[in-house]
Specification:
This protein has 385 residues and is an alpha+beta fold. Helices cover 22% and strands 24% of the residues. The protein folds into two domains: 2-63 and 128-199 and 294-345, FAD/NAD(P)-binding domain (3-Layer(bba) Sandwich); 70-122 and 200-289, 2-Layer Sandwich (D-Amino Acid Oxidase, Chain A, domain 2), CATH 3.30.9.10. Helix 2 packs across helix 9. Bound molecules: flavin-adenine dinucleotide. GO terms for molecular function: oxidoreductase activity.
């Protein structure tokens, strides 16, 4: 967002931590999925592809995206659910059905007999988060913008059309404040006197497994459970996994709970043939949602000069180019030129911000899992390792 504005505005990024990316951005699965989210999120993902796929001279044209592929995987008892949840995205050609043999060919680590049906997204791509951050950092530096770390916003007041922002390192003044403070956005909003959006941070746990010698993670797709109970993503010499937890949390430096680590490990062992495998590392991050699960990008309707860029849930990185472009246009007072996207979809004053009844149909792994209720289900017994 900051680097989308820095060419023609004086921009200062105020970051409480010593390094940007310490919280959600540095704890993600680093994937871009075309199929994820309701239609408004899919439109943002699509609109972000050109930027993410382009070569950028500032990072020596290092690719931001690399091929991965993703399979939504169903056991026998989950096939109906998978077909129902993927009806729209299959009709749009975003995913194609594949059978158990094709799943085994693409992901030989799936236990024999576990998967009955898959929906394959060929366009799922890894995002190089480090390269993306370097790109934005270099753009900011080149434009003369300031990236001020160890600088916590403590209070702010509006005087004569200008925000006076008090931080732990001094005062800053600007006509517009952009609230992009992730899980803390409600707190920062209240410093400006803005009404609550009902933003809810939710913890998600990450696990990292080493893979057996001879297994090359570069060739394996991401695998997502049809009911959103886990996913795994092969990467960097191993495999990231999560029990796809969605536990409401206050804003904090999130840590993994042992129960979630155990649950994630169990689910991975049930679905994949990885004898004796245990996570070598675990972490947690917060994904923040408003009621309809769609990001918020726009000026506060009541508080002058206060802009919200929050509630990106589990798609904040893959949608960042489009959201940053939209936000920059609105802040410059221009009509955003993004075909197929209506900025009103993301307005902080849309009814869906606070009304969960306006949540749109979704596939696994974003908001649908907030509706999860415990239920008995047939699950293959994990053979003794
Ligand atoms: C486990 C997990 C997996 C994910 N996987 C993906 C994925 O594969 N693809 C994808 O697109 N997205 C994914 N996401 C979501 C993505 O990480 C987030 O949507 C995105 O990082 C949000 O970015 P942000 O800048 O709003 O939040 P953050 O990265 O949390 O940044 C907010 C910043 O605001 C700062 N801040 C807060 N309060 C103050 C204050 N008072 N003063 C100064 N600074 C302050 C914080 O220090 C923080 O650095 C995942 C998230 C998690 C947790």
């Amino acid at each position: 967002m900051a680097s989308a504005l820095s060419a023609d505005a004086n921009v200062a990024v105020l970051e409480r931590e010593t390094l940007p990316g310490y919280h959600a951005t540095g704890r993600s699965a680093a994937i871009s999925l075309m199929c994820i989210g309701p239609a408004r999120i899919r439109a943002l993902t699509l609109a972000s592809q050109d930027f993410l796929a382009a070569p950028h001279a500032l990072i020596d044209e290092a690719p931001l995206l690399s091929p991965r592929g993703m399979i939504l995987m169903a056991r026998d008892d989950q096939c109906e659910t998978l077909l129902a949840r993927t009806r729209d995205i299959a009709a749009a050609g975003i995913v194609v059905p594949i059978n158990a043999e094709e799943i085994a060919l693409r992901m030989p680590l799936v236990r024999s007999g576990y998967a009955a049906l898959g929906m394959y997204e060929a366009d799922a791509r890894d995002i190089d988060i480090m390269a993306l951050q370097n790109l934005h950092r270099r753009k900011l530096a080149g434009d003369g913008a300031s990236l001020l770390c160890d600088t916590e916003v403590l209070s702010m007041r509006r005087l004569g059309g200008t925000w006076q922002v008090e931080t732990s390192t001094g005062w800053y003044a600007a006509p517009v404040v952009i609230n992009a403070s992730g899980a803390w956005a409600e707190q920062v909003g209240s410093l400006a006197g803005a009404r609550d959006l009902g933003l809810q941070p939710c913890r998600r746990t990450g696990l990292f497994f080493n893979l057996p010698p001879g297994v090359d993670p570069a060739t394996l797709p991401m695998m997502v459970d049809a009911e959103g109970e886990f996913y795994v993503k092969p990467e960097n010499g191993g495999m990231m996994a999560t029990p796809a937890d969605l536990t409401p949390s206050p804003p904090c430096d999130a840590r993994p709970e042992p129960m979630d680590v155990a649950l994630g490990t169990d689910r991975v062992r049930a679905a994949f043939d990885l004898p004796g495998i245990t996570p070598v590392r675990s972490w947690a991050g917060l994904r923040s949602f408003v009621a309809d699960g769609v990001p918020v990008c726009g000026f506060d309707p009541q508080v002058e000069g206060f802009f919200w860029l929050v509630g990106q849930g589990g798609v904040g990185i893959q949608c960042s180019p489009a959201l940053a472009g939209l936000a920059a246009s609105m802040i410059r007072g221009e009509a955003p030129e993004m075909p197929g996207i209506d900025p009103a979809w993301f307005s902080p004053s849309r009814p869906g911000v606070t009304d969960p009844a306006l949540r749109e149909p979704d596939i696994v792994t974003t908001m649908t899992d907030m509706q999860k209720t415990p239920k008995a289900r047939a699950s293959p017994q994990r053979p003794a390792d």
